[in-house]
Amino acid sequence: MSLGKHRKRLGFSENGWCEGGSKCRILKSPNFDSRPQNTTIDLLVLHNISVPEGIFGGTEIENLFLNQLDASKKIFKPLLNLKVSSHFLIKRTGSLVQFVSLRDRAWHAGKSSFLGRVGCNDFSIGIEIEGTDFEKFNDAQYDTLGNLIISIKNFLPALSAVTSHSFIAPGRKTDPGPYFDWNRVREAIETAEKNIFLFP
Ligand SMILES: [Zn+2]
User: How many domains are contained in the chain?
Assistant: First the structure.
């Protein structure tokens, strides 16, 4: 009997927000809209992010998704007019923040297509993992990610695939990058005996 199989999952309220208490912090981003009617949410897209690039541990990713970056700082100039978000952020410590309800469309993928279906924001959930294309992610991040994927699958049983931003926006995006360990995701899915495919 594996420990992973019986760990405490995150709950979600009917309106799509986590009920994790201290395990999931909610910061509501204004950068979202409704999904097209009758959309089946079946895809999860993994990203990496750091703000500023390569700097970890602050609160600037949150500020970016809340449109609250300090406009007087030159380093944020290129980011000021972006209106972006993701459903979740997993910080270097493994702590989890939710910005957009699972029911709604977060603005994380941009121009994208998954196996011929364009506009992935419509039918996907975006998870940002604090990191870069150039270094390893932390164990705590994989633990949170595995639990989050299984928790989302429990809430949205139609979820059938996990992919990378680079897979749905090739040539334009490279994240979560070569240091991301897909085996850790595969393990979490297999341990929970869930039917979810990985691309790649
Ligand atoms: Zn991305």
Answer: 1
Q: 190 an active-site residue?
A: no
Nearest Cα to Cα of residue 130 among 168, 177, 188, 167: 177
Q: What is the pLDDT of residues 57-100, one digit of tens each?
A: 999 999 999 999 999 999 999 999 899 999 999 999 999 999 99
To the nearest 10 degrees (0 to 180), the angle between helices 182-191 and 139-155 is: 50
Listed in sequence order, the residues at least 6 apart from 195 whose beta carbon sits closer than 8 Å to its beta carbon are 160
Is a pLDDT exceeding 60 seen at residue 38?
Answer: yes
Distance 147 CA to ligand 1 centre (A): 20
Domain that residue 107 falls in: 4-199
Which CATH number belongs to the domain containing residue 133 in this structure?
3.40.80.10
Mean pLDDT of the chain: 95
Per-residue tokens: 10: 């995150």
Going by their DSSP bridges, the two strands 124-130 and 43-49 should be labelled as parallel
Cα(155) to centroid of ligand 1, in Å? 24
